Every structure is written in structure tokens, then in C-alpha cells.
Amino acid sequence: MVRESFQEQLSQLRNDMLQMGNLVENAIDMTAAALEYQDLEMAEKVVVEDDNIDQLQLAIENRCFSLLALQQPMARDLRFIGTALKINTDLERMGDYARNISKIMLKIGSEPLIKPMVDLPRMAKLTRQMVSENLTAFVQQDRALALKAAGHDHEINKLYKNTFTELAALITRDTNTSTVTQSVYLMFIARYLERIGDHATNLSEWIIYMITGERLELGDMSTIVINQPEA
Amino acid sequence: MMNKRLKEKAGFGALAVLTFLAVVPVLAIIGYLVWQGWPALTWEFLTQPPRKFLTEGGIYPAIIGTLALTVGTIMVAMPLGIGTAIYLVEYAGENVFTKLIRIAIINLAGVPSVVYGLFGMGMFVLTLGLGRSLAVGALTLGILTLPIIISTAEEALLAVPDSYRYASLALGATKWQTVRRVVLPVALPAILTGTILGIGRAAGETAPIMFTAAVVYTPRLPDSIYDQVMALPYHLYAISTEVPNVSQHMAFGAALVLLAIVGAMNLVAVVIRTRMRLKRLR
Amino acid sequence: MGDKNKMETRNLNLYYKGFQALINVSFPVKENTVTALIGPSGCGKSTFLRTLNRMNDVIEGTRIKGEVLLDDENIYDAEVDPVVLRKQVGMVFQRPNPFPMSIYDNIAYGPRIHGRKNKDELNEIVEKSLQAAALWDEVKDRLHKSALGLSGGQQQRLVIARVLAVDPQVILMDEPASALDPISTAKLEDLIHQLKSSYTIVIVTHNMQQAARVSDFTGFFLNGEMIEYSVTNTMFTAPRIKQTEDYITGRFG
């Protein structure tokens, strides 16, 4: 094996990426718990720990740029570093959404919920699963698993659509201020979770590119609510 | 540490002494020649034929004879030698035939000069019936010089980087165009130097011309290549061994003139070499 | 970028004494493009390059099987004169090798051996070639000075000008920048880029970044075989063959 120092730096980058993935996975996990049990402490924790994600993002970006500048990577290495740069941004955005969701949960506080928390935690868990499967695919160079991960986005979009329609109906039925406010909050949470799902789909796309060099478009446009007439 | 430095100094010292010892005889010979020969060098000595059985007069015919033999040698040996070298280096490649030629050349270089003289007499004078003459002398000296010229020319050609040949061939030049326009001009200074040095050596030879071209005495200058000539080395040989009562100064004077001719030729070689080298870099 | 194959080899095998240096190489060279040949030392890329203008003929003990086509004609046919061929397929070598003559005489060398004697015509060729090689401005005041006084980078461009002066269709370059400093290399690469509109260029290089920068197509050679031929962009982002990937990512041996 030649270029040992380069290989060493690549494996450091790989470790950083895994750590980044784990942090985001955790953040989503905690967000899911915060949603499910209205656990404000957990929500607080997500907000605080997002700083770690932001810092790691910077460190990873710096590492990628110096590798590009100093080692002139080619082929597999180039795809790996390019992928790292891209999914690093996706992961950071996912972290931000988790923080935003947690902040909303903190605003809602412990006031009673207008509807039982079922779909939203379920969405959160699905996005978590996407991240987790993608990380495994990333480590094990498993194209099939990355593809499977992207498949969950379809369900997330469906849940988003349902939640949205449900909340919209609630508002029209009950125009009481607190109901409307909470509905809008929950709509935002649903929207953020849906966005996390989209970014997780991006992870799949980039990981597949990293493994094989093929460029796939995995986004399931037909199920995205923005395109729904009633939304 | 100190020891090492001392050893180094001692080593260089020893080498310097050896170099000095090598130079001493050369300087001694030249010094002695000048000292003994200078008094004989008069205008008359250089421009008059000898008189009274070589004991008086000058060496003019011998100077002219040597110069004529030298020019003849150049005319024989240069085209033949350089041509052979070009063939061997540029065209022939490595095979049994060229190996044989090379072995022959090496052996030719080892043959004593007197054998060349005998060969010249047997071959040109007797068998071909050319008689003792300037032409036969030049042929004989030419053959004598040939090995030196071939091998220096070969070396000079081999020293031309192949990159020049490739560049020329890759431009669509033929082999001959490449040799004539690129390789030869580059090799020429070295070839000329080697040739002139070899011919300078030949100009001082006695044995090869003794049987083929030179006579002890003729007041005439040659008017054709079939004439016999006087020549400095042979003249020197004659007055030192065969003729009694010759002033020592006359012998050394002739020797000094011979040395000067050879020296001048070497000087020409050096000048040609440096001028061509400078020209290439300018 | 032309789709026409300016040159093409078909099942080309080259033997040097007992050794097979090229094994069944089938390789296209597209017109008005730059094709780079990469691979580790001794992989046969330079040997392959020299089959394209029959410079291997110069080396004794070389034997060839297969075809090398220039405009669909086999350049190894008996009636093809290598001397005429090399006028069409020029070559630039690894080390700059200007002749020890003036700049002018270097450029005029090719036209002269091909029979041009008219002084005005030669002047024009010299100026045009030097301009095409981006060297004219640097040397126009010293045309009759020795070419050996130029810097390495200038010498290499001079050599390219010398090739251009015989008006070739294809230019082969054998690691032309390996003896040059980075700035001279950059100038040379710019030049290659400019030349490809009028010429077809094949370049052997040890420097993969250089291959990536200058070429449109890249061929990877290993142990005398052509392992992969691709559009350069594909070659360096997502090669198809594992050996190629291992080589260009530096995981060799």
C-alpha cells in the first residue's frame, strides 16, 4: 500500500463522518423522544448539542478542502471526499431541523396537546432509521442498503400529508387561538421532519455515487405535499 | 579527526609530486632542444637546401617534404577514417562483421610503425610499382593513422546524444540527412582534434617513410606526388647516424623545427575545438 | 471534438527480442482531441506511442504484429515509407532536444530536409511555427542565437515549433513536461490546449493531474495491455476497472 499518510487521513475523515452521523442520529432520536413523551429536558438537550454538530461540520469541511488541495484525490477517493462534503451539509441541515423541532416543543411546553402524538414520532423514527441505514451503507459500501434507506422517504411523505390534512381540518373546525397556534407549530414540526427525510434521501444518493459513481435521483416527487392542490 | 585530515594532505601531496615528476621530462626535453637547437635556427637554415653532404646549409626541402607528406596523409586518412567510423557507428549495427572490423582496427593500432613501412614498400612500391614517392609515403602514413582516426571518430560519433538522432528522424529526415546535418557537425570538433593529433604523430614517424618516400638528400622540391622527398624525421635520423661530422646544433635545430610543426598542428586542433564549441553555445 | 478516428491500432502486439511489450492493444485516437496515455513505468505506454510514428523501427530487435491505422491506412504496410509517415506524425520527446544550432536553423531544419530552400518561405514558416508554439515573442530578437541558450521550458516549446514547422497532422508527446518547472509546465499545457484545434495530440505522462488537465480521452496501460480507455472525466472520477482505480488513487503494489 502506498500513499500511507493519505490513506491515514482518509480513514480519519471516515471516522469524522461516522461521528457526525452518530451525532445527528442521536439528535433525531432525542427529538423523537421529546415528541413522543413531550419531554422538554430532552428537547433542551437537542438544542444545546446542536453546537457540536455545527463544529464538527466545520472541522470536516476543513479536512476535505485540505485533502483536495494537498492530495489531489482521484476516482474512488475523489468521490469519497466529494460525498463527505455533500452529506456533511445534509447532516448538518438535519441537525438544524432537529433543533428547530425541539425549540418548537419547548415553546409548546407542557400545555396539553390537541392531538395524540403518533404520526410525528413515527416520522422521526423513520428518518432516524434512514440515517442509521445510510451510515451502515456508507461504512460497508452497501449500495442495496442505501437504496432501501431512501425507500422510507415515501412513507414519511405519506405521514406528512396525513398529518397536514388532519391539522388543517382541525383548524377549520376549532378556531380557538391556542388550537390554531399549536396546529401551526405541529405543522411546522411535520414539515421539518419531512425535510429531514429529503436530506436523508440525499444521503442515499451521494452514498450510492460514492460506491459506484452512478448518479441517481431518488426523490419521490409525487408524494411530496407541496405538489398537493389542497396544501 | 586530525589523523584523517593529515592523511588527506599527505595523499594530495604525493599526487602533486607525481604530477611534477611526470611533467619534468617533458619540460627537460623541450628545454634541452631549445638550448641546443636555437643557435642553428637562422633564416638560411630554414630556407636553404643542405650542402656538403648535409653538414652545412639548411633543411628547407625536408620542411616542405614533411608538410607535403602531412597534407597527403590527411587526404588519405581523413575521408577513409571518418567514412569508416560513420559506417560503423551509424549504419552497421552490432554483428559479426563489424566485430571483425573492430578487432582488425585494434590490431592495426598495435602494429609497429616499421611494419607499416615494410608493408608500404612491399605493397605500393614493389607490387603496384608506384616507386618511392610522396604518394606512397602518404598512403603508408595514412594507413598508419587510420586506426587512431577511426577510433577517435567513432568515439566522437558515439558521444553525440541519440536524442539528436531521434529528433531528426522523427521530423522525417533520412538517416543520411540526420548524419550529415546533425550528427557530423556536432561530432566534427572532436573528430578533427583526434585526426590532427593522430596525423601530428604520423608526421614525426621515420620508419614508415624510410622505405616508401624519403631520401637522404635532394635539393629539389617535389613537383608531383610521384616525386621522392626529403622529410624532417628521416633527415634527423640520417644526420645523427649516417653522416659524420655534423654539428650537433644542426641536428637539434631540425628536431626543434619538427617539434614546432607538430606543436603547431596540435595548437590548430585546440583552436578548432574551442571555436566550434563556443559557436555552438552562442 | 471530432468523432473520427484519426489513428487507430487493432490488435497491436510488439515484441522486443524475446519480450512482448504490447499485448493486443486496440486503441482509438480521435481527431482534434488530446489523448493521454497513463500507467506505471514499463507498462508499454511509451512503446505504444512510438509505434504510432514507427520510431520503434529505429530500435533493433523490435517486431510488430497487428495494425496501426492513420486515416484508415495501415502505416506498417510495405509501401509506407517511415520517413514520409514521420512528417505526418511528429514527435516531442521527454527531454527538450533542440539541435545545437540557432533557433532559426532548428525550426527550419524540417522544412529544409523536405526540400524547401526559398528564404522568404522559410522565414514565414519559422515565424508561424514559433508563434503557434507561443514562443515567438520571447525569441524573435535572437533567432540566430543558439537554441541551447534557451530555458528548458522554452526549449520544449521550440521543439514543438520545430515539429509544427513540418506541418504534421498528429503530434506525439512523450512525457513532454517531465523535465520542466511548474510554470513552464503550465505554459506547455496551455499550448497543448491551443494546438488541439488544428492537430491531433497523443501525450504520455507520468503525471495523472496533467493527464486530467490536458486530455479529452485517457488510456490506462498496465503490463503491455490497454486496461481501460475512457473519456478523461470518467476515467478520473469513476473508472470502470479496478486496476485503473487502484492506479489512479495511488493504491498500487
TrEMBL record, chain A:
UniProt xrefs under InterPro entries: PhoU (IPR028366), PhoU-like_sf (IPR038078), PhoU_dom (IPR026022)
UniProtKB keywords: Cytoplasm, Phosphate transport, Transport
Subcellular location: Cytoplasm
Record-level GO BP terms: intracellular phosphate ion homeostasis; negative regulation of phosphate metabolic process; phosphate ion transport
Pfam families: PhoU
Transmembrane found in the keyword field: no
Sequence ranges assigned to domain PhoU in this UniProt record: 18-104, 121-207
Domain of life: Bacteria
Cellular component annotations (GO), alphabetically ordered: cytoplasm
Ranges in coiled-coil conformation: none
Keyword Transport on entry: yes
Family: Belongs to the PhoU family.
Assembly information from the UniProt record: Homodimer.
Functional note: Plays a role in the regulation of phosphate uptake.
Stated name of the protein: Phosphate-specific transport system accessory protein PhoU
TrEMBL record, chain B:
UniProt KW keywords: Cell membrane, Membrane, Transmembrane, Transmembrane helix, Transport
The keyword Transmembrane is assigned to this record: yes
GO MF assignments: phosphate transmembrane transporter activity
Organism of this sequence: Sporotomaculum syntrophicum
Keyword ATP-binding belongs to the record: no
ABC transmembrane type-1 domain residues: 63-269
Membrane topology field: Multi-pass membrane protein
Gene behind this protein: pstA_1
Protein's recorded name: Phosphate transport system permease protein PstA
Gene3D superfamilies: MetI-like
Annotated family: Belongs to the binding-protein-dependent transport system permease family. CysTW subfamily.
One GO CC annotation: plasma membrane
Listed PANTHER family: PHOSPHATE TRANSPORT SYSTEM PERMEASE PROTEIN PSTA-RELATED (PTHR43470:SF3)
Principal location listed in the UniProt entry: membrane
Domain of life: Bacteria
GO biological process: phosphate ion transmembrane transport
Location(s) in or outside the cell: Cell membrane
Sequence intervals crossing the membrane: 12-38, 58-88, 100-128, 134-161, 182-203, 250-272
Automatic annotation (TrEMBL), chain C:
Matches recorded under CDD domains: ABC_PstB_phosphate_transporter
Sections of the chain in a coiled coil: none
A Pfam family that the UniProt record links to this protein: ABC_tran
Gene Ontology terms: biological process: phosphate ion transmembrane transport
Record SUPFAM superfamilies: P-loop containing nucleoside triphosphate hydrolases (SSF52540)
General function of this protein: Part of the ABC transporter complex PstSACB involved in phosphate import. Responsible for energy coupling to the transport system.
Listed name of the protein: Phosphate import ATP-binding protein PstB 3
